[in-house]
């Protein structure tokens, strides 16, 4: 913040004041947007240290409660058994090769079903009955009725059982919890045995029901088959229908009868006769067309060879002789004779072959006509039989249906008869339950861990809750975040014996070191350095403002500055002088010079202006404007003027003093002053036009090195004062 120095030109006692040049900077800082509680690691550690005894107490109570609860809890024993579930397999025929393969159904559905059956109410009742637990006085109150005892025993058996379904595999774990180790083992084994027996009984009952049902169906189907067969035979006798077989498939009724069989045979013979007739006719007509070339060639082969030899000879001699030559004429005559003989031989061969083929053709045609006549006669008979066989076919179909159903029922009955035996059980015992040697509950270590965890969480939660409910200023971060002010320092609590004044005398004490750090912060609080006139105030009494005023005055004096400490709390003053007639009150009511009311203290460079007589109207005196001229006059002779003012809330004195001082330092007692009260005090100061340079945290719980700190606060309004500065006779001007 920028400031300017102003002086009254004609007044030698005029004071150099620091007036903010930026009006907005002097205005109250809006604190509604200040961040709230921040649960950072540092904050949690601070809460943990501050409330450590509460947390430790709750942890001790939690551990003690867990130990007591463990000792008072009845020991419980748990016995465990393991069962193996084997899903049934079914045979599936492979297409194409006709081989069978085994396939299991959905294992998970089967195992889930078994787990549900193990936890069923009926199984619990069966176990209670098998073990006669209703008559066990250690298990059920024997004064109850018998029916009630059975229900109670079944309920206790079901309540203590735990079934562990496997995530994978086929092993099912069961366990039972009881206050008796022997009873726990007995009941868990009873569950395993009863479950296996009930499983076998269910399978036997299911197969027995199926057998009974199939037996009734077989008897009924057999009667239906016998009735349909008698009807079929009776109808065949009445209609004269004779079947020679029972061919399968198609319209086979005609073929199975005698007429049908004869018609089929004649049809086959007719087809063969037709084939023979066609072959004979073809041979006959071919022979006539081709002239039986093969037979003719065979019979005339020698003649043709002789003719060929004569023709060759004729052609050979023709080159030498004329055709009219006698030898040539003789050869020609012999060739012509051979031609004549060949024609005669050919005619004989062709005539004989044609007669034979004709005879065969005529015989085949006659046989064909005879068979056609027979077939035509049988067609009418077969058609008549077909009309009479319609009812016969219906009856035959009913017989076939009943026979097929009867055979299927017989086959299924045989299969159930085989599968209905004991066979392989689907459930088997892997591990039987044993008598436990030690209780599994209560677990002391586990209970202690639970108690420790719950109590620690409760302690931390309660500490955080109390921390947030107790909305006070505790740390430097609270000053910055909640108040929106710079924290100029944190004064630790005193530790050990002695007084606050003695700590100030020792420059190496933690309190003295902390106030020295505040002096350094004050030098940087404004652009002009340390404010010339500084008001020390607080929100409420007993926050350490007077101690702070004294400590700052002494530290400035040690630095060689002339310091005037004004006791501005005219309601309950802290600092006294030997002469009660000197002080601030007489100056406010008179025009006397400041030097007449300033006394030297035992500290070098430190002077005191006490309060003097307590006035009846302090607020009116401070509002008159006289105090501003007093500060102006004092500022001419002293390097630093420190005013120890009254608390802000509830009094009008503090804002009046702050309005005429260059800066106001607000003292806040850590972990005591609530945030709304401090914010209200800051708003009142800023509303009066005061410049609040920052806040100082006193009696803070922070640590420095390996020691803590603290001191006894002075009490506002108490007659005895903790800090008194003895007046030394004034010599010369201050």
Walk me through what this model shows.
With about 725 residues, the chain is of the alpha/beta class. Among the domains are: about 260-385; about 485-700, Rossmann fold (3-Layer(aba) Sandwich), CATH 3.40.50. Helices cover about 55% and strands about 10% of the residues. It has helices spanning about 25, 40-50, 50-70, 105-120, 120-130, 145-160, 180-240, 255, 260-290, 295-300, 300-320, 325-420, 445-470, 475-485, 500-505, 510-525, 545-560, 585-590, 620, 625-635, 655-660, 675-685; strands spanning about 5, 15-20, 75-85, 90-95, 100-105, 160-165, 170-180, 425-430, 485-490, 535-540, 565, 600, 605-610, 640-645, 665-670, 690-700. An 8-stranded mixed sheet has the order 9-16-15-10-14-11-13-12, with helices on both faces. A hairpin with a 5-residue loop joins strand 12 (about 600) and strand 13 (about 605-610). Helix 5 crosses helix 7. The longest helix has about 90 residues, at about 325-420. About 30% of the residues are buried.
Summed up:
This protein is an alpha/beta fold and 734 residues long. The protein has helices spanning 23-26, 41-50, 52-72, 107-118, 121-130, 146-160, 181-239, 253-256, 258-290, 293-299, 301-318, 326-419, 444-469, 476-483, 500-505, 510-523, 545-558, 584-589, 618-622, 626-637, 653-660, 675-687, and strands spanning 3-6, 17-20, 77-85, 90-93, 100-103, 161-164, 171-178, 427-431, 487-492, 533-538, 563-567, 599-600, 606-609, 640-644, 663-669, 692-700. It contains 22 helices and 16 strands.
């Amino acid at each position: 913040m920028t400031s300017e120095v102003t002086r009254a030109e004609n007044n030698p006692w005029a004071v150099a004041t620091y007036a903010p040049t930026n009006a907005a900077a002097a205005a109250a800082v809006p604190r509604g947007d200040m961040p709230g509680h921040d649960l950072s690691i540092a904050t949690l550690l601070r809460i943990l240290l501050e409330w450590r005894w509460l947390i430790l107490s709750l942890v001790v109570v939690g551990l003690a409660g867990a130990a007591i609860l463990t000792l008072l809890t009845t020991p419980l024993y748990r016995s465990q058994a393991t069962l193996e579930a084997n899903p049934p397999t079914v045979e599936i025929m492979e297409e194409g090769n006709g081989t069978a393969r085994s396939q299991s159904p959905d294992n998970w559905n089967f195992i889930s079903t078994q787990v549900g059956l193990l936890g069923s109410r009926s199984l619990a009742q069966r176990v209670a009955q098998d073990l006669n637990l209703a008559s066990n006085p250690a298990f059920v109150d024997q004064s109850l009725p018998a029916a009630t005892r059975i229900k109670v025993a079944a309920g206790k058996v079901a309540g203590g059982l735990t079934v562990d379904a496997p995530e994978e595999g086929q092993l099912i774990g069961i366990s039972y919890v009881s206050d008796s180790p022997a009873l726990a083992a007995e009941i868990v084994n009873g569950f395993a045995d009863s479950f296996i027996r009930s499983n076998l009984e269910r399978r036997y009952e299911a197969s027995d029901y199926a057998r009974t049902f199939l037996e009734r169906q077989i008897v009924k189907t057999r009667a239906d088959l016998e009735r349909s067969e008698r009807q079929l035979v009776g109808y065949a006798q009445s209609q004269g229908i004779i079947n020679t077989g029972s061919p399968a498939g198609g319209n086979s009724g005609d073929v199975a009868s005698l007429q049908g069989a004869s018609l089929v045979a004649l049809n086959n013979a007719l087809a063969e006769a037709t084939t023979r007739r066609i072959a004979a006719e073809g041979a006959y007509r071919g022979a006539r067309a081709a002239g039986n070339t093969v037979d003719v060639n065979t019979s005339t082969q020698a003649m043709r060879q002789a003719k060929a030899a004569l023709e060759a000879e004729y052609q050979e001699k023709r080159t030498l002789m004329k055709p009219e030559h006698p030898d040539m004429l003789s050869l020609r005559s012999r060739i012509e004779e051979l031609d004549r003989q060949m024609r005669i031989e050919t005619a004989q061969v062709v005539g004989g072959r044609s007669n034979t083929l004709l005879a065969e053709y005529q015989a085949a045609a006659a046989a064909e006509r005879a068979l056609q006549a027979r077939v035509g006669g049988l067609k009418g008979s077969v058609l008549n039989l077909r009309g009479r066989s319609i009812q016969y076919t219906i009856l035959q179909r009913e017989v076939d249906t009943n026979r097929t159903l009867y055979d299927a029922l017989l086959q299924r009955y045989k299969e159930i008869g085989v599968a209905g035996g004991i066979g392989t059980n689907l459930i088997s015992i892997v591990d039987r339950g044993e008598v436990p040697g030690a209780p599994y509950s209560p677990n002391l270590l586990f209970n202690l861990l639970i108690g420790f965890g719950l109590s620690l969480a409760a302690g931390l939660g309660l500490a955080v809750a109390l921390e947030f409910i107790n909305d006070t200023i505790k740390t430097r971060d609270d000053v910055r975040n909640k108040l929106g002010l710079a924290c100029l320092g944190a004064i630790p609590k005193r530790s050990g014996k002695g007084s606050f004044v003695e700590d100030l005398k020792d420059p190496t004490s933690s309190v003295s070191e902390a106030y020295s750090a505040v002096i350094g912060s004050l030098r940087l609080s404004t652009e002009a350095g340390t404010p010339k006139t500084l008001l020390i105030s607080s929100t409420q009494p007993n926050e350490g403002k007077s101690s702070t005023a004294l400590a700052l005055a002494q530290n400035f004096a040690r630095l060689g500055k002339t310091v005037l400490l004004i006791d501005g709390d005219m309601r309950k003053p802290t600092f006294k002088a030997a002469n009660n007639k000197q002080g601030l009150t007489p100056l406010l009511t008179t025009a006397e010079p400041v030097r007449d009311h300033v006394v030297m203290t035992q500290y070098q460079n430190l002077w005191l202006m006490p309060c003097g007589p307590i006035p009846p109207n302090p607020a009116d005196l401070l509002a008159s404007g006289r105090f501003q001229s007093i500060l102006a006059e004092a500022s001419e002779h002293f390097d630093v003027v420190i005013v120890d003012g009254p608390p802000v809330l509830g009094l009008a004195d503090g804002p009046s003093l702050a309005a005429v001082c260059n800066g106001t330092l607000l003292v806040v007692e850590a972990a005591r002053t609530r945030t709304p009260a401090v914010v209200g005090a800051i708003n009142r100061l800023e509303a009066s036009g005061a410049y609040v340079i920052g806040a100082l945290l006193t009696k803070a719980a922070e640590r420095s090195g390996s020691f803590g700190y603290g001191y006894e606060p002075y009490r506002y309004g108490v007659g005895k004062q903790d800090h008194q500065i003895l007046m030394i006779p004034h010599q010369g001007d201050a």
